[in-house]
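Archive maintenance. Older records in this collection stored only the sequence; we are now back-filling the structure field for every entry so that each record is complete. The fields below show one back-filled record exactly as it appears after the update. Entries are processed alphabetically, and Myosin motor domain-containing protein is next in the queue.

ARCHIVE ENTRY
Title: Myosin motor domain-containing protein
Organism field: Zophobas morio
Length field: 254
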Amino acid sequence: MTNLNFLHEPALLQTLQVRFQQDLIYTYSGIVLVSVNPFKSLPYLYDASTLELYRGQQLGQLDPHLFAVAEESYQCLCRTLQSQSIIISGESGAGKTVSAKFVMRYLAISCGTDVKQSSGNVEDQILASNPILEAFGNSKTTRNDNSSRFGKFMQLQLSEKKVISGAVIRTYLLEKSRIVTHASQERNYHIFYQLLEGLDSNKKEAWKLTNCGDYRYTNQGITFFPSKIMTLYTNKGVAHVPDVDDNKDFLSVA
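Back-filled structure field:
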């Protein structure tokens, strides 16, 4: 965008719109990567062949991409031997959580891991932490079906061999009030709905659990009608979110 003849807001917005219409959701503005949420799946952007394409490349040599930013950060660390930071910011629904996952995935796979310093595969452990963080810290809001209701600082630790030896994830500012109160058309944290949907019938009976429509902590966002309440099993209201499989997600957490 810094190469535009006219560098003003309308030109910037038109550039983003034209690229967005071609599924080019990433655009450079100097060293900053601007990302536009496509609100659809673009798996070819993040597959193994694309990841391999960006390994060892300098920023700007290939099309704008999250992987390019992650690779530049890694190369700077190796070159300067100083810690590097990638800041991901934006409004709710912009795609920060998904972007962070892809950055961590790239670094975990591209850098490799030092298994001698770990009780298991560090790469798998890092990637496996995402479902747990999202289950206990994300929820549906009116603007985003998977909105992070907390802040997080994710730190990847590299050994002298420049491979990942561990990771630390610090969380802060959890929106605890959501546990007892959430607005209409919103949900509580995912874990409650995953638990009620994913548990087998025997455990639900033993623990005296029923459905999300029966509990105040999980039904405040469901639309009430004079004669009945829309529950999870009607596929209406917000207890059930389209394209979200609470049962499958619960298995990932478990």
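Update note: The first strand starts at residue 26 and ends at 29. The CA atoms of residues 107 and 203 lie 39 Å apart.
Entry marked complete.
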